[in-house]
Give the backbone structure.
Amino acid sequence: MIGVFDSGLGGLTVLRKLAERFPDISFCYLGDHANVPYGNRPSDAIVELTRRGVEALFERGARLVLLGCNTATAVAARRLQQNWLPGSGWAGHNVVGIVAPTVEAATQTPWAVTTPQYPQKFNSDLIAVFGTTRTITSGVYREEIRKRCPRVEVIQQICAHLAGAIEDEASREELDGLVREGVGAVMEQTLGALPHRAILGCTHFPLVEDLFRAHLPSSTRILSQPEIVADSLEDYLARHPHYLGGFHPQPRNLTMLTTGDAVETSARAGIFWPEAPPFERVVFGTRFL
Ligand code: DGL
């Protein structure tokens, strides 16, 4: 069984794609709806919340947890992998994020290759990255893309309120205004040059991909992070099959957990993923502020 963690609904955009791609694999999803959104929180809080979520999924039997969240990945993944996991008592378990596969897709360069290689070293595309405050201020996308493609220009844009507005079921008009504002700010930075590609670097944003599509220039290709993550997980599991464990129930289980209200979360998940199983509430501590 594989765990998928997000601050709220966003990771479902990833889980939905994984559930389609791997019909025999069981998944356990945990959305930390009691604490969403993460994107404007201090880094240490994001690390601690993410650690608790990962541990709750390990306790449920996941050996591998995928952070279906750019914010948690950008801020917490490396710290958990390097500082927490080795001494945590969870030997044989792992936590992986979603920034690396996205950078690989954006640069057409394997993550392990950290220096510019031909022909990508001559790539001078313009890439727009939209994300939460923490993801963008971490600079991870710009830094990791430019390590591999130093001539690529990366325009980063904070969409501070978009994930929260999606969680709060804001009106289409309000969401449209927030997306228009974010895209407009990117176009101001590019001084009229059209981005070749756009990374929706928050897993909540595919829920309003149509609005990004409507406001971005028609020539800008939007990279689909859920698709990219599914490709990357396929490759990862082929190399590390032990994370799947030995027992595969048929039919597979899709377990949905939330730290928020189960009925409300199930109803909202069903709006964009009608086949999503109902959520159960999980409690692993009091609200973290
Ligand atoms: N969906 C998450 C991300 O990919 C986090 C959004 C939030 O909680 O602010 O960044």
In short: Residues 6-8, 10, 36-39, 69-71, 132, 135, 163, 202-204 surround D-glutamic acid (CB under 6 Å). The beta strands are 2-6, 27-31, 64-67, 94-96, 126-131, 153-158, 197-200, 221-223, 254-258, 279-281. The longest strand covers residues 126-131. The CA atoms of residues 176 and 211 lie 6 Å apart.
